[in-house]
Amino acid sequence: MVKKPVTLIALLWLATSLLMAQGTQQPPSMEQVVRTESVDRARMGTMQQPLTQAEVTNLLKRNKQNPDAVYKAVDERGVDFDLDRKIEKKMRNAGADDDMLQAIWKAGPSSRSTKAATLTSSTGVPLHAKYEEAMGYKTMENELDPDKRLRMVAEFEQRFPDSELMSSVHAQAAKSYREKGDLNKLVEYGEKSLKLDPNNLFSLLMVAVALPQPRMQEGSPEQTRQRLAEAEEYANRALKLIDGLPARSDESPEQLKTRKDSMASDAHTALALVYMDRDESAKSIEEFKTAISLSQAPNPQLYFRLGEVYANSGKTDEALKVFAKASELGRGTVVQQYADQRIAELKKK
């Protein structure tokens, strides 16, 4: 077995899109037509323009006893804004309830342009969710503090246990534990996510990279073999899914390729770590090289790991070169310290 290197891999992931509206259209009474004729003539030229925040707010205030009028206007014209928590508060103050917020949310520009479900899975599969679920998830996804994010996960699980978003919610928990350095919990929640959606790409990548880490190889030889086999399976499944990823509505072909390459780099990193732990040096070297070539920015951690494989397989010259690259790219970080240390050790031999 090769010498276990220091765990230095970190990954970044997730993303969302929104859904289109459906509603009921009821023609106004003749009395309403006569009463509003002059107003309608003035608005005729802009009748198809989406409603602004101010217009929706005014409609809500004027029609507190007649919400159907607001539903009709929102359904016919749409709105020119996407709901967020700040706008939601204003709408609630004007009289909107949860059902009205759902209608406004569905009528937003993102929903009309994508004509998709409320959110999509990591592989672009439509997911359906109520407004409160989707906004809760988006808030959770945007939270930078992992501890706060975990509290949001617990709250979401309690409020919406049967939500279609639950696989993605568990992936957010796995991401939080990755940031906290708790690999066991990362794997636990990643596996929960995959139980609900075996093709959750973000969970596949996180678990695939976590399982071959040295800290996860402390069990029996059989447990180690099982974890490595699982990591290999997840990484290969992820690569197949990445290959078929559809473009997002606002994504150019170049941006799609960049996104695919970044995720594929993570999958090849996982495979390289698996082969490294199995002492399959040739395979590990090729996978690390592929991961490096697909990485969006030179990654000192990948060069350090590649240097370890070269060193442990007796290829000292190659090891010195990539350790030097790791030191250069990781200047001022712990990667530089470990790389310089390995260079000094190899030069003494």
Give an overview in words.
The protein has a two-stranded antiparallel sheet. The protein is elongated. The protein is mainly α and 349 residues long. The chain has 18 helices and two strands. The longest helix is centred in the last third of the chain and has 25 residues, at 253-277. The protein has a domain at 18-31 and 49-115.
What percent of residues adopt helix (DSSP H or I)?
55-70%
Strand content: under 5%
What is the 3D form? Answer: elongated
Mean residue pLDDT: 83
Spatial strand sequence of the major β-sheet: 1-2
Oligomer: single chain
Give a quick account of the main beta sheet: strands, pairing sense, barrel closure.
Answer: 2 strands, antiparallel
The chain-level structural class is: mainly alpha
Order of helices and strands: HHHHHHHEEHHHHHHHHHHH
What distance lies between the first and last C-alpha atoms, to the nearest angstrom? 20 Å
Please render the helix and strand layout as text.
Elements: H1 30-35, H2 37-43, H3 53-62, H4 67-77, H5 85-94, H6 98-106, H7 109-114, E1 119-120, E2 126-127, H8 131-142, H9 146-159, H10 166-180, H11 183-196, H12 201-210, H13 221-243, H14 253-277, H15 281-294, H16 300-312, H17 316-329, H18 334-348
Antiparallel strand pairs: 1-2
Name the features.
18 helices, mainly alpha, two-stranded antiparallel ribbon, 2 strands
At a glance:
This protein has 349 residues and is an all-alpha fold. The chain is 65% helix and 1% strand. It has a two-stranded antiparallel ribbon with strand order 1-2.
